C-alpha cells in the first residue's frame, strides 16, 4: 500500500488516471499515521488539487475524510492553523473532525472556529452531524449553539444535537427555557413558509422540494419542544398538532404526551393511518409507556410491514416520497434454523404517478423485513427492507425475494472487506 507522500503526489499528478489511482489509495488507506504524517495531510488540505473525474469527488475533502480515522486532541492546533485557508465545505469537515473528539478542548475549539466561519459553512448531503456519535459536553455547546439558528446549513445540526442531549439526560427538561424564544421564532418562520404552500388532500404537497427543504428540521424542532416548558412552546405545539403534515402532527402529539398533556385517541388515528408515520408513532408511544393510545385498527404485522417499506422508500436516496400506490403481493414465512424461530418477509409492489421520475417504470417490487414471527405484531424489522426498483412483472415473487437478498449479501460482503 502506498504511503501518504506517494498518495499526495498521485493526487497532484497531471495525469487523470494517476489522480484517480490516488483517490482509490486514499480511500483504502488503513496504515498507522505519525504526528508528522497528519501534519503533512493537514498542510496538503489547504492546497488546490487538479480535478478528479467526477465533480462530486474532491481531493482536499478526501484528505479531511481520511483524517477522521486518526485525529486526536494533540492535532487540534494543526486544525486551527489550517482552518482559515479552507473553503466552506472543508471548514465544515474540519469542524466535524473536532466534533468527533469527546474532549472539552475540542468542544471549545469547535465553538471558537464556528464563530469565525458560521456564515461560510456548507455540508454535503449525508455527511453526518456536526457532532458525531454520542452527544457530549452539552454544558459547553448549549445554549451557545442556539445563537446560530439563523444560519440555515447549521439548523439541523444544532436541533439534532440539542434533542440528543435531552434524550440522553445531558440536559434537563426546562433547562434551556430562557432561550426558547430563539426556537419559537424558528418555528414561526417554518409555519409562515408552510402557510403559503399549495396543499392537497392526499399529501402530495409534502414531497415537493419546497417543503422537503424544511420538513426534517421542522419535525426535529417540534420533537424538541417536548423538553421546553415555556407557555409559547405549548401554543406552538397546539398549532402543530393540527398541521396538514401527519409527521408534524405526530411529533407535536408525542411532545405534548412527554409534557404530561392529555391526548385523545382520535388525534392519533390519522397518523396511524398514514403509512409513513405509522410505525414511528407506535415506537414513540411505546417509549413513553403510552402504547394503549395506539389505534387498534392499525395494530397488525401487515400494517407495520407496509409502514417499514414506505419509510424506506420515502428516504431521499430512494423514491424520495411515499409511493402513490402500494400493494402486498406475498408473505414469505421462512425457518432459517435460528433460536428466533420463523421469520416473515413481506413482498410489495408499488408505483408513483407523474411527474415523479419513477412513474415511467410502472409497478416495482420491494421487500419489507424480516420480522420475527413470534413477536408479531411488531414494527421491529431486521435490516433487509430494500428495493432494486425492478419491474414487478420481470420476476416471480420468489425471484424478487431472492434477487434482493443476493444484492444485500453482496453489499455486506463488500462492506466487511472494506472495513
What report would you give on this structure?
By secondary structure, the chain is mainly α. Among the domains are: 128 residues, no CATH class; 117 residues. The protein is 49% helix and 7% strand. The chain contains 17 helices and three strands. The protein has a three-stranded antiparallel beta sheet, with helices on both faces. Strand 1 and strand 2 form a beta hairpin. Helix 6 packs antiparallel against helix 7 and helix 14 packs across helix 15. The longest helix is centred in the last third of the chain and has 22 residues. The two termini are 16 Å apart. The model has no long low-confidence stretch (mean pLDDT 90).
Summed up:
The chain has 419 residues and is mainly alpha-helical. It is built from 17 helices and three strands. Among the domains are: 172-299, no CATH class; 302-418.
How are the elements arranged and paired?
Elements: H1 4-12, H2 16-28, H3 35-44, H4 59-67, H5 76-82, H6 88-99, H7 104-117, H8 138-141, H9 152-167, H10 180-195, H11 209-224, H12 231-240, H13 246-258, H14 265-273, H15 275-287, H16 301-313, E1 325-335, E2 342-351, E3 364-372, H17 397-418
Q: How do the helices and strands follow one another from N- to C-terminus?
A: HHHHHHHHHHHHHHHHEEEH
Structural class: mainly alpha
- Separation, N- and C-terminal Cα atoms: 16 Å
E-strand count: 3
Strand order within the widest beta sheet: 1-2-3
- Continuous helix count: 17
Q: What's the mean pLDDT score? A: 90
Radius of gyration (CA) equals: 24 Å
**What's the overall geometry?**
globular
Low-pLDDT stretches: none
